[in-house]
Structures are given as structure tokens and as C-alpha cells.
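Lab notebook, design round three. We kept the backbone fixed and only want residue identities now. Task for the bench partner: fill in a sequence for the structure below.
Input C-alpha cells:
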């Protein structure tokens, strides 16, 4: 067993690479047992720290972001000589994707896209929405124009509508909006709605009763949108945030499903030119 396999979840213990899950948080969204069983042949995972390690020497370690295999095999592995328990501090310290040996990359992908699965109620709710959609298919001084010109801002609903029209999507194309509350509300969506009447979201495709268990849990609602996005015929992110990148990677893992990533910087100037022409 390779020691770097211990770094896929927050806390790890002893040289046998026993992994300790933070159950109060991990199991809140993810299927803990599925994760453990899926990686059983590669990594030994436990839910609680073994009693014999309760008083063991331990350390909290902040891993260096985007590090390669050498960093974990040479620098981190040597820590086992001094500590029996190593706790990985919460961060986005990720394993570098480039130049990984094939077996590391395969385990990396399986952990992210196969072993890491949402809890059954979340999966079930997302599938209900997918099935229902099939028939229909802190304050800063920011120059918003400058930010949009650099491509730093999400596309507006109007820009999304123009982009879809330019790509040839027809009026009767069902479009699922994978997002929380839209800035500006329905008024801000009017232009996109006029171009594409079949705008869908989880609130339209599921009843209040079906969504009730998830309404006060933003992370679970986001998980539902994630699943629907992964299963969509075409995925078009209006912004390249963490969720969009995760969805795109997941779709590639499942067989390179079609994803269209707009160039927001170019679209800003095209939209400005378009507005000048129609004025």
C-alpha cells in the first residue's frame, strides 16, 4: 500500500494508513460507507481513531498545495518516524494533476468521482428532478465594468441567452438553471426567459414537499444541482468556479460528455458591440 493514498480525506492515522473520517461533517453530505467500501482494496479506512492510538503522538499538518508525489513520499512520509497520528488540516491542498504515475492518477480519479458519492436522499432527490426534466427537457470598491472586461464575472442571464442563440440552440430547448437565488430575481431573468421559455430548476421540477428536507441546507441543495449538471446532455457553466470545474472533471471521467466553456472576456466585448449596433 502506498502511503500517499492516505491524503484523500482529512485525517489519517498510523503507518497502516488507517483513515479517520470526520463523520459529523463528511457524512452530512457524502455516503460514508460507500466511500469506505469503494476504496477498501487500496486504503484501510476507519470511522473512529483506534483506542490504542488515543494518546499517541500526533501533529496537525498543512500540506503544500498542488504538490507532486515526491513531496508526499519524501517529506510527508518521513513524519511517520516521529508521529503515529497525522491530522491533515482543512484546506484546498490538492494533489498536482500533472506528471502523476498512472496508478496514482487512477486512484485519485476513483476517489473523487467514484468513491465520493452523495448521501442516498440527495441522490434520490436529484434523480427525481432529472426524471421530471426529461419531458421538458464583504463590501469592496470594485469597478464592475473592468472586472467584466477581464472575464472575472459570471455571464449575465442576457449574455447566456445571446450565447445560446449564437450557438444555434432553438426556442424549445429545455434549460436547467443549476444555481441558488438569482441576483435581481425574476426581473433579471426576463431576457433569457423570453428567448428560452423552458427554463427549469429544482423548484419547478420538484414539489415543496419533496424539497422540504433540503430547503434549509444550502450544501445539500447545491449537491442536487451538481448531480443534475453531471447528468445533463450539455453542460455550459456561466462561471468557472469550483463547482463548475468539478462538474466538468466528473463529466470527463464518465466519458467526456459535452461541456461548453464560454470565453467570458471575449463575450463581454461582443455583447458591448451588439448593444452598440441595436441602439
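Proposed sequence:
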Amino acid at each position: 500500500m502506498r502511503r500517499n493514498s492516505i491524503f484523500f480525506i482529512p485525517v489519517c492515522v498510523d503507518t497502516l494508513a488507517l483513515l479517520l473520517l470526520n463523520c459529523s461533517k463528511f457524512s452530512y453530505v457524502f455516503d460514508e460507507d460507500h466511500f469506505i467500501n469503494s476504496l477498501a482494496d487500496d486504503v484501510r479506512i476507519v470511522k473512529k481513531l483506534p483506542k490504542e492510538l488515543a494518546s499517541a503522538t500526533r501533529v496537525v499538518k498543512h500540506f503544500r498545495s498542488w504538490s507532486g508525489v515526491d513531496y508526499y513520499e519524501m517529506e510527508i512520509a518521513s513524519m511517520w518516524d516521529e508521529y503515529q497520528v497525522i491530522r491533515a488540516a482543512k484546506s484546498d491542498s490538492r494533489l498536482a494533476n500533472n506528471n502523476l504515475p498512472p496508478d496514482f492518477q487512477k486512484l485519485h480519479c476513483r476517489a473523487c468521482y467514484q468513491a465520493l458519492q452523495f448521501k442516498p436522499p440527495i441522490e434520490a432527490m436529484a434523480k427525481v428532478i432529472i426524471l421530471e426534466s426529461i419531458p421538458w427537457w464583504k463590501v469592496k470598491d470594485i469597478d464592475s465594468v473592468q472586472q467584466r472586461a477581464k472575464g472575472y464575472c459570471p455571464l449575465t442571464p442576457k449574455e447566456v441567452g445571446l450565447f445560446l442563440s449564437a450557438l444555434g440552440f432553438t426556442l424549445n430547448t429545455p434549460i436547467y438553471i443549476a444555481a441558488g437565488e438569482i441576483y435581481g430575481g425574476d426581473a433579471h431573468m426576463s431576457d433569457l426567459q423570453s428567448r428560452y421559455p423552458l427554463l427549469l430548476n429544482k423548484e419547478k421540477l420538484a414539489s415543496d414537499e419533496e424539497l422540504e428536507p433540503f430547503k434549509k441546507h444550502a450544501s445539500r441543495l447545491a449537491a442536487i444541482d451538481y448531480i443534475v449538471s453531471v447528468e445533463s446532455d450539455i453542460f455550459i457553466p456561466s462561471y468557472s468556479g469550483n463547482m463548475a470545474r468539478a462538474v466538468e472533471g466528473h463529466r470527463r471521467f464518465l466519458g467526456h460528455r459535452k461541456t461548453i466553456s464560454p470565453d467570458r472576456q471575449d463575450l463581454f466585448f461582443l455583447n458591448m458591440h451588439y448593444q452598440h449596433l441595436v441602439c
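Keep this in mind before ordering anything: The chain has 13 helices and seven strands.
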